[in-house]
Every structure is written in structure tokens, then in C-alpha cells.
Design brief:
- This protein is α/β, with parallel strands linked by helices and about 550 residues long.
- The chain folds into two domains: about 325 residues, Rossmann fold, CATH 3.40.50.1820; about 100 residues, no CATH class.
- About 30% of the residues lie in helices and about 15% in strands.
- The strands form two sheets. A nine-stranded mixed sheet has the order 1-12-11-7-6-4-5-3-2, sandwiched between helices. Strands 9-8-10 form a three-stranded antiparallel sheet.
- The longest helix has 15 residues.
- It is globular and about 70 Å long.
- The two termini are about 35 Å apart.
Length: about 550
């Protein structure tokens, strides 16, 4: 699933969250209140929903073209793609159109009478690039009863991929130049409400009275908007890694290091297996931090000497969140305390994608000219014109119009960042280039009421990963507050977009098969999920 991109300086990367605890929360709001319903102001063409012939006659489905992708892969034969024209402005549909790129995954040649629409995250990610990459425990069962559609949101993937050469990756100036280059006002119909209207237009011309929908990460924000605007056409809704309308994306980035490191410490403290390795992991991390503050360690970075500082140690520690090396950290740091750095070097190498080894004990440099490489974490760098990567333009547009107003201002964000315990560096305005330039990305037509929580009596299924530092469990609970009949599940031991876990995939498939019914939904597999083993000291 697409993560929020690492577009900003190291500690405030906004990338498009208690060990073993499982929560199954049912919202208890008795009065959901009035549903905000924006008058679409248009009448869409009617189609014969009893047959697929209309859709196949109008739409030319064929092999998916992946030749311009960064990693060209031929789609399986059962996945076909098509360009489908939709109104550019759904509130005045007699004008110009825009082509959406849509992938259809169908088992066999016979059309199913039910459809699942999948929306990818980012903002700015390509949905078609993720065709067949939903959880293996979800796809086979769902295909027995549903055709699955992957829709590239306008401005992403094959739907008019938006990019600019200056990007918006490092400085406020870059972000402003990018906004000027693309002409922000021309993109006023590229927001979440437009994506929701696109899906409903597709629903109609494809001949479905109702559809099921699954939104991953930011895709859940689009799915929530569809729920708000078109509830009568939604039979089931899955929110996978929930982005509520009140989501604070920059705050998430600013608190990321503390959340990850504190969660790691708590997970270890709660595990007898981990405590046997590191009885006091907090002290181990603190001692290592202080030692590097006093005396940075000389290391070799691809054979050239540089130093591991306190700040960089904390950055790697917070970045090493994947289970491949997350469960290696306690052992690595305990061994480092004893002067043995092999395990920690291996973790650094995995995180950096470069070979890290011990440096010369006398601290001499590997090059006579004194050049020292700077350690750098991998950063999001969109490939210009490659539709399967994230569109930084759409990311900036959505973030600045829909999410940034939730933050409370740059000064409040800087104050929050300064109060973090595990940053190792004092934040500054330069650490938030897009937020500083958001005024250049705002469009006048955005209705601020669309940032209000979505309220509905639908039986929505919300999934949060226990270890998800991006869309955290608290975000899922926030969205569930105004969805009184929703079921929120916390999937243990997994991170962002937990549908990838076998148990979550099975639950989703059963929920979709039951047409969105949560009563009696079997979630018992959650209790049988096992934690990844902590690496032991040999």
C-alpha cells in the first residue's frame, strides 16, 4: 500500500500506528446527526444494471500498459484496463471531460453482480499499480462474488499524472515554484470530493446500483467522502489505515520519532522474551545516545569514513520500524553497549541501503583529501512522468487544502516538535517546506465544511495496525466516533494498512461477502495472531 511520501527533511517526513493488545471497538454514538450532503447538481446517464453488456459495449477493456512504469510488470490476463471519460466538473457536467485510468480484475469471463472499488493512498498514489496486490487472503474469496475495480484518482497514475520538475521535496521555494508551474487554479477539481464523484459516475456507467468500496491510507479519506455524498449507493465500506477528515499529517510527522521509539520500548517491556534480552531497553537506548553525543563513532560508509552521531543514531532507530529489523534492535543495542557493533551495522545497512562497517579505531579518514560522506536516509523522490509513482503535485494540493488547516499553524507545530524527547535535533521552519508554502496551493473553491467529520449509520469496517505510526489507532477511533454502527478493529503486530495481514484479509473478505454486515462477523483470528520473534543474543 502506498505510504505517505517522505518528502521533507528527515524528522518531519510526512509520508503518505500496547504490544499484544487487541481492540474491537463498536461505536456507541446514539445520534449520528445529519449527514452533510452536497448537492451534486447534475444528472448522470442511466444504464442497464442487469447486464454487463452496456459497459463492455461502451468501454474498451484491454491489456494494461505498464511500459512507462518505474518497474514495468505485465499484468495478469484477468486484469484489464481502460480509459473512461468523466466530467471534469461534476457540478457542471456539460463541459470538458477528463480520462480516468481504471483496472478491472475479474475471475473468469462472466461478470459478477457485485463490485469492489479500491482507492489507493498517498495522496497521489496510483491504484492501478496495486492491482492484485491486496492481501492474498482477500483477493481469491472476494473475486468469487465481486469484480474488483482499481481507479487512478485524477492527477495520478494513468489519469493525467501530475508532476513538475522543481518538485516539492526540500525547500519552500521548490514548493512555491511547483505550484506556479502547474497552475493550481486549474486543479480545483482534483480534490477528494471530485474523486468520490468520479467513482459514483463510474458506478453508474458500469451498471451497478450499489458498490462496495475499500480505501487504503489516504484512500480512506476519499472513501469517507463517498460515504458522505452517496450513502445510498454504498453496500459495504472498508477503511484500511484510517485518515479521518480531521487528520493532522504534519503533526504525525513531527511526533513520528517519539511514537516509534516509545512504542518499541513499551513492546519490549511488555514481552518476557524481549526483557530477557534487554531488561531496560529505555536505559540501553539512552546510554547509547549519550555515548554518541560525547563521542561520535567512526564508521565506514561504502568504504569511506564518516561518523554516527547522536542525531543520526536516533534517526536510524526511528526508521528501523519494519519487522525485518525492528525485532533485531534490542539485541543490536545490547551488543553495541559491549563494543560489538556488527548487529547494529547490519540494521544501519538495511535502513540506508548502503554497506556500513566499523571505522578505523584511530579515527583516521579513509580518503587523504579529507572528504567525508554524509549519511542520508532514503527519501521520496518521484520519477518525472512515471505514472506508478506518487504524484507530488496531487499530494501537495490535497494536503494543503484538506489537511493542513487541521494543524493549528506552523508555530504550534514547531512548539510540538521542540517538546519531543527523541528527535536529537532542534526543528526549524525549514523542516516544514510544504506547510510554509501551502498558501500557494490553496484553491478558492474548496468547501471548508468538507473537513467536518463524516457521519453515517452505515456498518463501516475500520482497520488500524497496532504498529502503524502514520494512521494510528487513535485516527481510526476518531473516524468511528461519528459512524455509530461501525466496527473498528486493531490488528496486532502490523503497521500501515493492516489489510496485508492474513487475518485482516480474511475478515475483510467475509465482511464484503456479507454485503457489509458486521453482526456475527468472525474476528477470532485476531486472537491467534503471533508476534514476530525477538532476536536472541547467541
Amino acid at each position: 500500500m502506498q505510504l505517505f511520501p517522505q518528502q521533507y527533511s528527515t524528522w518531519f517526513l510526512v509520508v503518505i500506528f500496547a504490544a499484544g493488545c487487541v481492540s474491537k471497538e463498536q461505536s456507541d454514538l446514539s445520534d449520528p446527526g445529519a449527514v452533510l450532503q452536497q448537492d451534486a447538481g447534475f444528472t448522470l446517464p442511466k444504464t442497464d444494471s442487469s447486464t454487463d453488456a452496456v459497459a463492455d459495449f461502451v468501454i474498451e477493456w484491454g491489456a494494461c500498459d505498464t511500459s512507462e512504469w518505474t518497474s514495468p510488470k505485465k499484468m495478469p490476463s484477468e486484469v484489464q484496463c481502460a480509459f473512461i471519460d468523466v466530467p471534469f466538473n461534476h457540478f457542471s457536467p456539460t463541459g470538458e471531460t477528463i480520462s480516468l485510468y481504471v483496472a478491472r480484475h475479474r475471475q473468469g469471463k462472466v461478470a459478477k453482480d457485485r463490485a469492489l472499488f479500491y482507492v489507493q493512498g498517498g495522496p497521489g498514489g496510483s491504484s492501478t499499480a496495486y492491482a492484485r496486490r491486496l492481501g492474498p487472503d482477500l483477493i481469491p474469496q472476494t473475486l468469487e462474488t465481486h469484480d474488483i475495480y482499481y481507479v487512478d484518482q485524477r492527477g495520478t497514475g494513468g489519469s493525467g499524472f501530475l508532476s513538475c520538475e522543481s518538485g516539492c521535496t526540500s525547500t519552500e521555494r521548490n514548493c512555491r515554484e511547483c505550484a506556479t508551474f502547474v497552475g493550481v487554479d486549474s486543479l480545483k477539481h482534483h480534490l477528494s470530493i471530485d474523486a468520490a464523484a468520479d467513482i459514483d459516475y463510474l458506478r453508474q456507467i458500469l451498471g451497478y446500483q450499489t458498490i462496495s468500496m475499500m480505501g487504503a491510507s489516504y484512500g480512506s479519506r476519499v472513501a469517507l467522502e463517498y460515504l458522505r455524498q452517496y450513502p445510498e449507493h454504498l453496500s459495504a465500506l472498508v477503511l484500511d489505515g484510517v485518515v479521518p477528515t480531521t487528520f493532522r499529517i504534519f503533526e504525525m510527522g513531527a511526533t513520528r520519532a517519539d511514537w516509534l521509539i516509545e512504542t518499541l520500548i513499551k513492546n519490549c517491556d511488555d514481552s518476557a522474551e524481549c526483557r530477557a534480552i534487554a531488561p531496560d531497553l529505555r536505559k540501553v537506548i539512552t546510554d547509547r545516545r549519550l555515548a554518541l553525543k560525547d563521542a561520535p563513532r567512526t564508521i565506514l560508509y561504502n568504504g569511506y569514513a564518516t561518523t554516527e552521531t547522536e542525531t543520526y543514531f536516533l534517526r536510524v532507530l526511528a526508521t528501523a520500524r519494519h519487522k525485518i529489523y525492528r525485532y533485531e534492535i534490542p539485541r543490536a543495542l545490547v551488543k553495541a553497549q559491549a563494543g560489538e557493533f556488527q548487529y547494529w551495522n547490519d540494521i544501519m545497512s538495511s535502513v540506508l541501503g548502503q554497506a556500513i562497517t566499523d571505522g578505523p579505531e584511530d579515527g583516521t579518514l579513509a580518503r587523504e583529501d579529507g572528504w567525508r560522506p554524509e549519511l542520508s536516509l532514503p527519501r521520496f523522490a518521484p520519477v518525472i512522468g512515471a505514472p506508478d509513482v506518487l504524484s507530488g503535485v496531487l499530494y501537495s494540493l490535497v494536503v494543503c487544502n484538506e489537511l493542513a488547516p487541521n494543524e493549528g499553524g506552523l508555530d504550534n507545530l514547531l512548539a510540538l516538535a521542540e517538546n519531543q524527547s527523541w528527535l536529537g535535533a532542534v526543528p526549524s521552519v525549514e523542516d516544514f517546506p510544504l506547510l510554509s508554502a501551502c498558501d500557494a496551493w490553496q484553491v478558492e473553491t474548496f468547501d471548508q465544511a468538507l473537513r467536518e467529520p463524516v457521519q453515517s449509520a452505515k456498518k463501516v469496517l475500520l482497520l488500524s495496525g497496532e504498529l502503524d505510526h502514520k494512521t494510528r489507532v487513535t485516527d481510526g477511533l476518531t473516524a468511528a466516533k461519528t459512524l455509530p454502527n461501525s466496527l473498528h478493529l486493531t490488528i496486532p503486530y502490523v503497521g500501515h494498512t493492516p489489510s496485508k495481514a492474513w487475518c485482516a484479509g480474511t475478515i475483510i473478505a467475509n465482511y464484503l461477502d456479507a454485503n457489509g454486515e458486521t453482526e456475527g462477523l468472525d474476528t477470532s483470528c485476531i486472537d491467534s495472531m503471533e508476534e514476530y520473534p525477538w532476536a536472541k543474543i547467541p
